[in-house]
Design a protein that fits this description.
This protein has 248 residues and is an alpha/beta fold. The protein is 35% helix and 22% strand. It has helices at residues 2-6, 10-15, 23-37, 42-46, 70-78, 96-104, 117-130, 187-199, 215-224; strands at residues 48-51, 54-57, 86-90, 109-114, 135-138, 149-154, 200-209, 227-234, 240-247.
Length: 248
């Protein structure tokens, strides 16, 4: 945080600890510390967040990217997709998933959709910042884009509504719309899964981040929608955090 307040790399502070702190930097850093103690996320203060080795601009309008979301990227990059695959990121937020996939696989034709204009503006700025080409659309789930897709990725809201008030204070600074998944946390997941067979190519697939204890419920919802679970991916805590689906 001090490095960000001063506009220097953290390593510079460690190499030159004797440097005198300018008054304006000390004032800015002190204000940030007060806000951090009050529970505001450090990434909201600095305005950036690392994801897959890149710095993304973020704001209170988007979900702060979490390390577990990198599992979605890792899983997608492991799939044997064609070099010119069509990829759709649903609920893109800051664009961290879509832009990372576009940067790692320049041949992929990546699109991203979000219903929040403010989030899309952040994603657009990140696209310019990283030089990653992603087509951005505003709409509800995948209604604003035309199929078919080789792969759909999504980190949709999956927190049950009655759990929201018990989330850590830091997490509660994220936009409610990016957290609230309805009564069981799966309202939007259920809506997207019901439309996946229309959206995907016959040999296509989908990768979703899900909450703790939701894997079996998502698998059941997928089965009723004519989808099969191809893989479950656990995070470092042993939680089934990512689920891979394909049409039956």
């Amino acid at each position: 945080m001090l490095g960000a307040a001063w506009g220097v790399e953290e390593v510079t502070l460690r190499l030159y600890p004797e440097r005198e702190l300018p008054v304006e930097v000390e004032r800015r850093y002190g204000g940030w510390l007060e806000r951090r103690v009050a529970g505001e996320p450090a990434h909201h203060l600095t305005g950036t967040c690392p994801f897959w080795g890149r710095e993304f601009e973020i704001s209170p309008a988007v979900l702060v990217p979490r390390p577990e979301t990198e599992l979605v990227v890792e899983t997608a990059l492991e799939l044997p997709l064609p070099n010119n695959a069509r990829i759709l990121d649903v609920g893109t937020g800051s664009g961290c998933i879509a832009l990372t996939l576009a940067a790692e696989r320049p041949g992929w034709r990546v699109s991203a959709v979000d219903r929040s204009s403010a989030a899309l503006e952040i994603a657009r700025r990140n696209s310019n910042r990283l030089g990653a080409a992603v087509a951005l659309y505003r709409g509800d789930l995948a209604t604003a884009v035309a199929p078919p897709w080789d792969l759909i990725v999504a980190n949709l809201p999956y927190v049950p509504k009655d759990v929201l008030a018990r989330l850590p204070l830091e997490v509660r600074h994220d936009p409610v719309a990016a957290l609230d998944g309805g009564s069981d946390g799966l309202d939007l997941v259920r809506s997207l899964l019901s439309d996946l067979r229309r959206l995907l190519r016959p040999c296509g697939g989908a990768i979703l981040e899900i909450g703790e204890g939701q894997a079996d419920a998502v698998a059941e919802i997928a089965s009723m929608a004519g989808l099969a679970v191809a893989r479950r991916v656990r995070d470092v805590g042993g939680v089934d955090r990512v689920i891979v689906l394909q049409p039956r």
